[in-house]
Design goal:
The protein is mostly helical. It has one domain. It is built from 15 helices and 4 strands. Strands 1-2 form a two-stranded antiparallel sheet. Strands 3-4 form a two-stranded antiparallel ribbon.
């Protein structure tokens, strides 16, 4: 008598694994190529985009939906116009390619490769793992005096990104911390939430040792928003735990107490007694605004800020910043951007470019918050994805007030925008309210398919 044994389902690998490979490449020491600082992860991200295109053609799937295409494609209009106004065709092409990579192509590829919330959590945990790796190296650099130079000592935690990209590790750790907090506040298993909470607390130390004021501010704002979105009661409990952890790390163990206190105090002294780095930043901000006033609609063109900087900056601007340590010799690094994404876009792309780029970000934020509402209506299903997506976007929008794109860590920004895009434009469509009533956009196919309609 034959027995009908259940057949084991074949193992299906996640199509998002190539994106995980991009993040894995950022775990190894990088040698930036050229002034743009592109590295191997950027090259692999281009291959991921190509893989996504081939996959769509083989499966004969339609491209992005009209809503997704409009939101992700909105920056293309402003970028194309700014590329035509560039000083040279080479600058226009390279600048256009970089912006399309970070804000259009890679996010669209991530959106299309993520099938469901399991794939989303896979990428979120990958960001946490990358943050843990980079943060561990950063703490070792601080303890052994092998980090980047800070106030005459090689103690600044920079991970594998080196002294020329001091914001790289701070951004990677911040993204991982935001993901860990979102996963800890979600509705997954108690074990997963506990591990995520432990990872979040552990990442506070390397973030502090990065001495990055911009990352600190963006992280504090983001974690506050995440906690409030998760509920006031949970926000108070989690806030108490974070405060206790900070007291133990800084007060109990004396982790960089004097230098951290001085760095924190400098945040409130940016107007009364700013240091040279803050003075340079203010001067470059003013130069970017002055460029925009000369060409308010179109700006000076892509990659035009370095060429027009000296003609619009005051004498308070220094010749560059000093970088040293973490295996690199002393060098004078020129100031090629205003370290403010909004002013960089305003100066180089004008009001048209800023409206297109920031308009797409605002649309993503609105859609992500709408997805959070759907998750709440469904009893918290997918809440961790909503909190991670909203947190990543809020962190990036706040950080853009103190930083801009550049360096090998920039591909992280592209991946994060891809995760945000998936939740905002596709992920929430698979959420059904608790009472079982239909939600506009509800469907039975995997959530990742919603972006293809």
């Amino acid at each position: 008598m034959a027995l009908d044994l259940p057949l084991r389902r074949p193992l299906r690998l996640s199509p998002a694994l190539p994106v995980v490979a991009v993040l894995a490449l950022l775990a190894v020491p990088l040698t930036p190529g050229g002034e743009g600082g592109a590295g191997p992860a950027d090259a692999l991200s281009a291959l991921v985009v190509g893989y996504c295109v081939v996959r769509l053609l083989r499966e004969r799937r339609r491209p992005l939906s009209r809503t997704a295409a409009l939101v992700l494609g909105l920056p293309v209009a402003g970028l194309s116009l700014a590329a035509m106004n560039a000083l040279s065709p080479g600058d226009g092409i390279t600048g256009l390619g970089r912006y399309l990579q970070i804000f259009v192509l890679v996010p669209a590829a991530v959106l299309l490769l993520v099938r469901d919330r399991a794939d989303f959590r896979l990428l979120a945990w990958s960001l946490v793992a990358l943050a843990g790796w980079q943060g561990g190296i950063g703490v070792h650099q601080y303890l052994t005096g092998t980090g980047a130079s800070y106030q005459g000592e090689d103690i600044r935690a920079v991970g594998t990104f080196g002294a020329t990209d001091v914001m790289g590790m701070a951004a990677a750790v911040s993204f991982g911390l935001v993901c860990a907090v979102g996963l800890a506040l979600g509705r997954s298993s108690a074990r997963e939430r506990g591990i995520a909470a432990g990872c979040a607390l552990a990442l506070l130390l390397p973030l502090a040792l990065s001495f990055s004021r911009g990352a600190w501010i963006a992280t504090v704002v983001t974690l506050t928003v995440q906690l409030l979105l998760a509920g006031v009661r949970r926000a108070l409990k989690a806030g108490a735990v974070v405060v206790a952890a900070c007291v133990v790390l800084v007060g109990g163990f004396g982790v960089g107490t004097a230098m951290l206190q001085e760095r924190i105090d400098s945040i409130t002294q940016v107007t009364d007694a700013p240091d040279q780095s803050v003075t340079d930043r203010y001067t470059m901000w003013a130069a970017a605004v002055d460029m925009w006033r000369g060409r308010p609609l179109t700006g000076v063109g892509l990659k035009g800020f370095p060429e027009y900087r000296d003609g619009h900056a005051s004498l308070a601007l220094s010749s560059g910043s000093d970088t040293e340590g973490a295996g690199a010799a002393f060098r004078r690094q020129p100031l090629l951007s205003p370290h403010n994404m909004y002013l960089l876009v305003l100066g180089e792309q004008g009001l048209i470019g800023l409206s297109c780029l920031a308009g797409g970000w605002l649309a993503l934020l609105v859609c992500a918050l709408r997805g959070l509402w759907r998750s709440r209506a469904a009893g918290g299903r997918g809440l961790e994805c909503a909190l991670v997506a909203c947190g990543l976007l809020v962190w990036q929008l706040v950080d853009f007030a103190y930083a801009d794109i550049g360096g090998p860590s920039t591909v992280l920004t592209a991946v994060c925008f891809g995760l945000v895009s998936w939740w905002a434009l596709a992920g929430a469509d698979g959420i059904t309210p608790r009472d079982g009533t239909a939600v506009r956009g509800e469907q039975t196919t995997p959530a990742g398919e919603a972006a293809l309609r």
